[in-house]
Amino acid sequence: MNRCIRMDPADNVVVLLVALQPGDELTVDGRAVRALAPIPVGHKLAIHPIPEGEYVIKYGERIGRATAAIAPGHHVHVHNVYDITEEVYREERRKLGL
Amino acid sequence: MSAFLGYDRGAGRVGVRNHVAVVSTISGANHVAEKVALETGAIPIVHAADGLQFGADREMTARTLQGVGMSPNVGAVLYVGLGYEQTPAVQLPQPTRGKPVEHLSIQDAGGTRQAIEQGVRMVTRMQEQVADLPRVPFDVSRLAVSVKCGGSDYTTAIASNPAVGVAADLLVAAGGTVFLTETPGMPGSEHILARRAVNREVAAQIYAIVDAFRDEIRTHFDRSPHEGNPSPGNIAGGITTLVEKSYGTIMKGGHSPIQGVLQFGADVQGKQGLWIMDTPGHDVFSVSGPAAGGCHICWFTTGRGSPLGNAIMPVIKICGNPETYRRMAENMDVNAGTIMTGEKTVEQVGREIFELTIRVAGGQLVRAEELEHWEFAVPRIGSTL
């Protein structure tokens, strides 16, 4: 049974279908990623390093910015992600010229 | 399977049900409408609208109530009012191709009991008239389906909404129509939707309806969309940011280009492809709007569980949480929890939904219909005066 799901190939996080404990391993793209924290089902785990200030990518789109460096296996959630909704809204609207 | 047996309503309209509805045109007529429906087995549609409504509020009520009678799923309709001069000017639909449309005034009938008696006679006669209407073959491209999510949890964006998105893409590819609803779920992803608009005008319309929602909550509640959103429940379930939540929401519309934007309850006849209907997020309004516009069926995704149906549209309930599906089995039509457990893929469940939809179009009842969940509600604009 798959223990995680990647919504888009460009994503740097996966969504867990089972809760993980530190040390539990997932295989994503043939590579092993080891959970570094307890992560509940439905939550996100980083599969690539996300430097501080860089985007968290899910659904192939930027959904937030890392507030601290995130290593593969880290829990990615409100404690280390800044909500960029308003920033994306303003930028994309300007780009569309609307 | 690319065909279903439906009701030919003439003028290019096809129905998947042949309901007899009793529609109150004003809240003072609700009781009589309900009693007539109870005694005849017809479906009652009642609401809180009244005579003192103006402008867009009055138009929305009138358009919605008229739309119910015009729906191709409705085979006959009795409108019950107090007297013409007090109604929100509901224009009765023209009777078409064997669809009886009648009106009953409580004042003219001589009060409650007389009106109920008269109404029962009228509805019984209409039921006899439409009872033997045959179903004839139609292509699946004739179907218009609306989508919505209610009682969402962490499974909604992983399982049920992506599966509905697959079904939406299948229906659009087959020539059918899908309506994405719930404008309050769009802040955060309006640029995604706008990018997919077929032209600049439609892109601007998408921003316009979301702007109107943003203005509404700023003016009346002094909030912006991202305050308290994602909610504590969303956060506990793993949703971190509003854009993330919004992307998960719009997935249920699939990936087709967006052809246009319609107002609540506007006529959907002749629209093909993926459209947006501007509705509240409210679980009953967001299904009633497309129903009044003439949509045939609703795809309703849920995680925590919702029993809701609709008075004139079969609501296919798609549950992404395997535990909820088990616990509330009597309300659920499709188990998208199989995606969570790995038994099935998103694509498989999407196809399952599409194929079930064709059977439902041909007459198979959904759970909400078996349980007589006939919810319907008319939203209001502004204060009640």
Give a description of the structure:
The complex is a heterodimer of chains A (98) and B (385). By secondary structure, chain A is mainly beta. Chain A is built from one helix and nine strands, in the order βββββββββα. In chain A, the strands form three sheets. Chain A has a four-stranded antiparallel sheet with strand order 1-2-5-8, with no helix packed on it. Chain A has a three-stranded antiparallel sheet with strand order 6-7-9. Chain A is elongated, with a radius of gyration of 14 Å. With 385 residues, chain B is α/β, with parallel strands linked by helices. Chain B is built from 14 helices and 14 strands. In chain B, the strands form three sheets. A seven-stranded parallel sheet of chain B has the order 10-11-9-8-12-13-14, sandwiched between helices. Chain B has a four-stranded parallel sheet with strand order 4-3-5-6, with helices on both faces. In chain B, strands 2-1-7 form a three-stranded antiparallel sheet. In chain B, helix 1 packs across helix 4 and helix 5 (154-173) runs parallel beside helix 9 (242-250). The mean pLDDT of chain B is 93. Classes of the chains: A mainly beta (98), B alpha/beta (385).
Give a summary of the structure in a few sentences.
The complex is a heterodimer of chains A (about 100) and B (about 375). With about 100 residues, chain A is mainly β. Chain A is about 10% helix and about 35% strand.
Distance between the termini of chain B: 51 Å
Tell me the helix content of chain A: 10-25%
Q: Give unreliable regions of chain B as ranges.
A: none
How large a portion of the residues of chain A is in β-strands, by DSSP E? 25-35%
In spatial order, strands of the major sheet of chain B run: 10-11-9-8-12-13-14
